[in-house]
Amino acid sequence: MNIDTFKTTSKDQKKFIDSDAQVVIWDGCRGAGKTCAGAIKAIQSIEKQKTGVIISVSNKTIIQQELDKWMPANKVQRISSNQFVLNNTRLLILNFSEVEQRLRSLEISWIWFDLINVHQFSEMLDTAIFGRLRSEVSIWITTLMYGGGVVEYATLKDFHDIYGRN
Question: How far apart are CA 46 and CA 109, in angstroms?
Fold first, then answer.
């Protein structure tokens, strides 16, 4: 399989993948295709030469399986179990515990948090991440909290104004 053969399975999956919002959150049920959608969105960004980081709260293996399923094998160089290069653009997969330490040194265009609690993410913004990210970095969040569908925020500030601590 490759990304060209991918067909969305729901309107939420399509909305998440197609979103140009700086912060997009898909809060969906188990098996809805959130991790698959995140992998597709990541590959599309890499194909546009946009370097990114995937942060896995639960299991990096599931994300790696989705990436392996959809990335064009003849164009991918696997550097390690958590690092890929596609079209001269690097993709790094981190565990949640590695985030603060590793984000300091990376020049990235996007971050995808898979299965993170939105309030956990908000706390990260308040502590480590918010001050270190360039203002134009896109953030994608897939979560299982309430099943509320896809929500878009035009800017990181818009998201932070709602979820951040005052």
Answer: 10
Cβ neighbours of residue 135 closer than 8 Å, sequence gap 6 or more: 156
User: CA triplet 95, 123, 64: central angle to 5 degrees?
Assistant: 20
Length reported for the chain = 166
Is residue 159 a part of any domain in this protein?
A: no
Given this model, what pLDDT does residue 148 score? 81
**Average pLDDT for consecutive 10-residue bins of the chain (166 residues)?**
66 92 90 89 86 77 79 74 74 68 72 77 59 72 82 83 63
- For position 19, which CATH number holds? 3.40.50.300
Q: Does residue 3 lie within any of the structural domains?
A: no
Range of the domain at 39: 10-149
Tokens of 85: 């290069």
